[in-house]
## 1
Amino acid sequence: GQNIDQPTEMTATEGAIVQINCTYQTSGFNGLFWYQQHAGEAPTFLSYNVLDGLEEKGRFSSFLSRSKGYSYLLLKELQMKDSASYLCAVPDSNYQLIWGAGTKLIIKP
Amino acid sequence: ETGVTQTPRHLVMGMTNKKSLKCEQHLGHNAMYWYKQSAKKPLELMFVYNFKEQTENNSVPSRFSPECPNSSHLFLHLHTLQPEDSALYLCASSQEGGTGANVLTFGAGSRLTVL
């Protein structure tokens, strides 16, 4: 079957760096998505990785290793507004997304 | 504003009530989705409409009934719900058939409480 695992909750300090991991098991592979969801708001698209390696977008970077079934989201220079849940998702064979339960990131001053 | 608008944002209903959730997208997308989000659980895909045709129904109980009158509007009709149906219901849209990632744009959700 298909499965996605990510930590339930993480805490980090303002100004620091945090890495949120995601491991997946799928029958095929059609890329991996990261979304951000602030409490009470819509999930919003952060990144999409289909090839191995690191993709950087400002303070946020996303890494993928297809051979290890592993991805991480790296957040640098953390700000209080980065407190949110971070959702990892991969498409199934019908290209519908299978989601992890999300990682709640708490930023402390 | 994401371009996907959901109403109402909050809804409380009894188990015998009938209510509807509404979703409207202003992005010109051709696919729309209903998801259920419960605390500490993964998003659950309920229904997918592609060009107004339902293409996915993930074994959702018949007390949930979707309607897609056109590619911009999506409804979720609710009747005789159970307390375990209390959750955040998210609508999303996307442009299917293009190259690259099929990115979903979500609405802010309708928080449903069933008493």
## 2
Amino acid sequence: VQLVESGGGLVQPGGSLRLSCAASGFTFSSYWMSWVRQAPGKGLEWVAKIKEDGSQKYYVDSVKGRFTISRDNANNSLYLQMNSLRAEDTAVYYCARGPRDSVGEFDYWGQGTLVTVSS
Amino acid sequence: SYVLTQPPSVSVAPGKTARITCEGNNIGGKGVHWYQQKPGQAPVLVIHYDSDRPSGIPERFSGSNSGNTATLTISRVEVGDEAEFYCQVWNSGTDHTVFGGGTKLTVL
């Protein structure tokens, strides 16, 4: 199992960024997938999750209406479109497999991509 | 929203037993998962559903969950176990995942 994130970088407040996660080594279309972030020196925060077929999506309240999670099962890819970015969105964003059966654990994680929101 | 409370730090001598707690309202009724994160690395799942160990995780790692407290126990602690540990549950009320604030394990 391998998860490789990309797309992070420096963006101004109010700007947009699209993160990608390339998955391999497992049947991508059979798993819920999530984004989890970690602000510098802080703990883990779950951001969003998407059902195997993309039909259900859930978000933490702080990003609802600004972030959109999506997936392309044909290309084994997960995405996070981030709009109206704020300083407090600065974090390492991890792609994670799970939660298992929508309610369980995250059994594999990518290495993360850093998003910095600053003027 | 559902809150998980962990002690900021736990210290233990090599060879001893470390216990890291995770407190939440009636957490004993939920499945608790634990992650180990070393500096500069992604989290690694060490315990799922209270006490199950994923393959490749040493038997020294164990877990329990009852009442308002879940506990991760690390026996015969090694210097290489030094890391941040996080607990995680699913909150049925919001269908959201919640993480504890993390506990830094220091091996003296």
